[in-house]
Amino acid sequence: MNNGIAIVIALLYLLFLFGVAYFAEYRLKKGKSLINNPYVYALSLAVYCTAWTYYGSVGLAASHGIEFIAVYIGPTIMAALFWPVLRKLVRICRTQRINSLADFISTRYGKNFSLAVVVTVLCVLGIIPYISLQLKAIATSISVLGGNNSPEHNLSTFLQDDTFYIAGVITLFIILFGARSINVSDKHEGLVAAIAFESIIKLVAFVAVGIFVTYGIFNGFSDIFNQAAENESLKKLFLLESNTSYTTWFGMLLLSMLAIVFLPRQFQMGVVENVNENHLKKAIWLFPLYLLLINIFVLPVALAGKLLLNGSGVSPDTYVLALPLMHGSKILGICTFIGGFSAATSMIIVETIALSTMMANNIATPLLLSTQKFIAKEDRKLTRSILTIRRVSIILIITLAFLYDKLVAQHFSLVSIGMVSFAAVAQFAPTVLGGIYWKSASQKGAMAGICSGFAIWFFTAVIPSMCSAGILNSDIVVNGIFGIEWLNPVSLFGISGMDMITHCFFWSILFNTISFIAVSLYTSRSAQETYQAEIFVDIFRHSNETEYNVAWKGTAYISDLSSLLSKFVGNERSERIITGYAQKKKISLASKQADPRIVAFVEKILSGIIGSASARIMVSTVTKEEKIKIDEVIRILRESQQMIELNKELRRKSVELQKATEQLTAANDQMRDLDILKDEFLYTVTHELRTPLTSIRAMAEIVYDNPAMEEEEKDLFLSGMIKETERLSHLITQVLSLEKYESGRQTLNKTAVMLNQLLSDTVSSVATLAKEKHIEIKNNLPNSMFLVQCDETLIQQVLYNLLTNAIKFSPAENAVIKIGIYTNHDELQVWIEDNGKGIPNDLHSLIFDKFFQARSQTIKKPQGSGLGLAISKKIVEMHHGKIWVENADVRGSRFIFTLPIS
Amino acid sequence: MEKILVVDDDPYILMSLEFLMKKEGFEVKVARNGTEALDIINKDIPNLVLLDIMMPDVDGYAICKYVKASKKLQDIKIVFLSAKSKESDIQKGYDLGASLYITKPFSTRELMKKVKEIISSG
Amino acid sequence: MPDSAKKLRFAFLAILLLLVFSYPLISIADKQQLIWGFPLLYAYIFLVWIIAIFLLFLTAEKRGPKKNNGQ
To answer: Which end of chain A is more exposed for a tag (fewer CB within 10 A), N or C?
Structure first.
């Protein structure tokens, strides 16, 4: 096999990656986003695992044992802080339309232009070597797969260089999927999908090698470990202490904890490309799981390499590839190569996107826009210029990385470059973390912290590297710079005992944090900073309401803002964006002067396209801003707060209003029901009147028309007429009295009444009626007195109604009516029981309704007026008592009513 | 001789109608509830039934429906006499095939005239 | 579960993990010894790692303690 085949494989793989990205964007167009998925999000975070993980971990493990794993345990610890920290960053970036780390820092600290430039420059300085490292890994793996030993490091022959072409194709990919839309706050759908896909490839490939080595070449884990345990030098790799110090271990843990958030590619994937905050929930445990899986086989493969390939001249950094090749598995070798290639490309792609966005938005675009001639340019050209800038930035970064690889990188091992980059991005930690939790963190503090941190980083990490690479005189690391001993880059202030990276990390972060805090405390903040600090720290409170009030004062015209925006998004869209926003916020567009909220909104839209610092410059060219004082900002913020409160209050009020409306509707319905009831009542009453009227009229007509009829027969009709007339007048009386109770015109004439006496009197009045029907009335009245305050006439009517009812419903034979009375706490209970056929349970509450008999069973004629129980209920209720019916013990019903004693 | 059945649960109305029909020379049967009425209808097959609607057991509508559904009985003329005066109640009576629906209270003279008309119309 | 409670749990987990992976606790396992065929330190790290992932899973995905009203 030669390099040619490896290159073809690499290019085919890249072609496939294009396909994946195209497919994802195609799906998005159909409305089915691939990346709006927590698993894809978690996988995209695995861009953390680069060629350094893939090849370098094994290399490091082969020399330093288990130490390498700190770089993956750190992110696991940090994953626990994803929810509090990363989620906050995500929320801030989404609401503020921030799309890079530099943009984040500059926006937080008053949209400061110089801060954005500094952050960008430092990111590029810190990360370019790291990208070139990936190119180097690709070149090395191609030559190993091709069977050549070491790749060329000669710039003059770059046209014959394999990596040159591969880097070219990667650049094309980035330009196609990373710099297509002018709006950087749009998500890179295809790109993220491709990265997630690459994460799967590299995991599967590495685990495959691991299994092949562990179970194919050896007999499982214990075989490798046991063989290594017999070798004195390999045995040491099982331990931490004999290879490294606990201080270094701890330093690496902290460093990688910060790297997982602050590396530009991690910030890009974890924060900028996040589609949904809730995806974090899955990433919190899935991402550590990914790291665990990809690391299980690292130590076994390293040990296997040492056992089998030691002294063969194969670099430990290529064991992963060399082992399967040496043992005759060409196919697995190719798979491994693809895995490593995917690890390298994913890193290059995302890191380049992140860096180029920073470069384009924070350095190039502001320079371009600051020349007056560009502002006057027509829309199309400006948009194209900005895209061109972004593309050129991408090409520039890859070229720099390529040059670095060819000129400098051969002097370093894979791992040391990576750690130096980690230490570089760690310098952003105090500024960013302080910025989201500490309102007093100031722009000057941030600048001081970052600059001092970077100075120390450069001095303690870059200079020693250059010395060991032979670029600088190595005398510096022995005797210190200019021979001053306490300025020794590897033992600053004479403190030694730490390895280079830990030493660098310690001093740089120390100086960084101290100057950040000190300067913040001892300097004042501008109004803009105060406002941004408030929004960033309290983002969860502000994210929905920030637009109530805006810390902007000055004069601006809508037409100016609109034409500014149209330069970037086109006339039609610009119009639509502004009117849409005004409608949503209920801002009138009638006046030519723009509301401050519109100014802020246009600025925010522009930041999504060209970054916040440039957006601020652009907006300032078309507006006349007045200086705003700190106390004004504080007032505005307080008003915002009040607005929020007011809004809550408003919401509460509207809920109350809703409730009131519902109550009103219910009352209305009830009224209508009552109306229906009244109609029904009238209908029933007239209906009840018709029956006696019918017989009276019929009988009267008969008697009148038949004067010749017999006396006896005539008497029958006449007495019938009298009886029916009585029935009629009884009915009318009852209807009238019920009406009296219902309208509340009936008054109570309360006297002290002996209830047992009243009861026996009433029983005697119905005795004749009972006797006629052969009903026995069992009077269980005790002799004691039951004195109660009530209206005697009315209560007697209740007793009479209940008794006549009982008589009416008594059976024809063996009829018994029992009555009783007793005291129950503070009330008297009277009960009257018959042994008729009883009342079904479900009707127990209904029978007290007027004309219940008539209404519930239209077919059944009521016996009696149908009003007796309704009237009785009214009377008892007027006395604050209760009336109800239960089933009698054996058969029949028991009516009970109560009267309160006092 | 024409046979007439009078059904009503009010004793005085029943008494009056029985008197009037007999006087006119019809053969009269009386029933105080629906069950009795159905017995007589099946046994004697009257020519005409004066039928109350609201009764304790079987209502007049059901009786009418029963009569009109039976081949043997469907020629029996039904005249409803009811206190139910709603338009919908009356319509229901006619829908069930009644020859006449008279609301209470009614004029006995008018009633007799209508009954004779119905009987003679066959 | 209120968000602040969730944040506190995660902060606690982060501190706990940093402790068990740092000196002096990690030195407990830093011994030249094989356990079930694995180096003690290797076994310790991966075991704690798996437990950590499980705890992260529970904290991230579970709804938290049930409310007192038993719903």
So the answer is: C
- Coil, strand, or helix at residue A157? helix
User: CB C32 to CB A299 under 8 A?
Assistant: no
Q: Are A305 and A58 within 8 A, CB to CB?
A: yes
Residue A698, chain B, CB below 8 Å: the answer is: yes
Element (H, E) at A528: helix A527-537
Q: How far, in Å, CA of A869 to CA of A850, rounded?
A: 7
Secondary structure (3-state) at A776: strand
Helix H or strand E encompassing B86: none
pLDDT per residue over A507-538, tens digit each? 999 999 999 999 999 988 887 788 788 888 88
Tokens of A483: 């021979």
Report the half-sphere exposure of A356 (CA within 13 A, side-chain side).
Answer: 29
Beta bridge partners of B3: B27
Q: Calculate the CA A253 to chain-centre distance.
A: 30
Query: Using the beta-carbon criterion (under 8 Å), do A861 and B55 form an inter-chain contact?
Result: yes
Number of Cβ within 10 Å of residue A527's Cβ equals: 20
Write the ipTM. 0.92
- Residue C61, chain A, CB below 8 Å: the answer is yes
> Which residue type sits at B104?
K
Model confidence over A811-845: pLDDT tens digits?
A: 888 888 988 888 888 888 898 998 888 888 877 77
- What are the residues whose beta carbons fall under 8 Å from the beta carbon of A204, sequence distance 6 or more? A339
A764/chain C closest Cα distance in angstroms:
60
Q: Find, in chain B, the residue whose alpha carbon is nearest to that of A860.
A: B56
Give the pTM: 0.64
- Residue in A81, A240, A299 closest to C30 by CB: A240
pLDDT tens digits, one per residue of A333-359: 888 888 888 988 889 989 998 898 888
Nearest CA in chain C to A254: C18
> Does residue A2 carry a pLDDT above 80?
no
**Nearest in space to A547 (alpha carbons), one of A508, A596, A615:** A596
* CB-CB contact of A796 with A761 (8 Å): yes
The CA distances from residue A810 to A723, A773, A814, A892, in Å, are 23, 9, 9, 8
Task: Tell me what percent of the residues of chain A surpass a pLDDT of 70.
Answer: 88
Is the CB of A683 inside 8 Å of chain B's CB atoms? Answer: yes
Are C18 and A253 an interchain contact pair (Cβ–Cβ within 8 Å)?
yes
How far is the C-alpha of A287 from the C-alpha of A81, rounded, in Å?
A: 13
Contact A402, A167 (CB under 8 A): yes
Q: What is the pLDDT of residues C13-39, one digit of tens each?
A: 999 999 988 888 888 877 777 788 888
The alpha carbon of residue C11 and the mean position of all alpha carbons in its chain are separated, in whole angstroms, by 12
Say which residues have a Cβ less than 8 Å from residue A899's Cβ, sequence separation at least 6. Answer: A755, A788, A790, A795, A827, A828, A830, A876, A879, A881
| Sheet containing strand B100-103, strands side by side | B27-31, B3-7, B48-52, B77-82, B100-103
Alpha helices in A706-773 (DSSP H): 711-743, 755-772
Share of chain A above pLDDT 90, in %: 14
Amino acid type, A804: T
Tokens of C39: 């180096």
Contact C60 A76 (CB under 8 A): no
Q: Residue C22: its chain A contacts at CB < 8 A?
A: 246, 249-250, 253
User: Left if phi > 0, otherwise alpha if psi is -120 to 50, otherwise beta: which for C37?
Assistant: left
C21: nearest CB among A73, A223, A292: A73
pLDDT at C70: 36
C-beta separation of A791 from A816 below 8 A = no
Taking CB atoms and an 8 Å cut-off, how many pairs form between chains A and C? 109
Question: Kind and range of the H or E element at A263?
Answer: none
Distance CA A206, CA A344 (A): 13
Partners of A625 in beta bridges: A554
Q: Say how far apart CA A310 and CA A227 lie, in whole Å.
A: 14
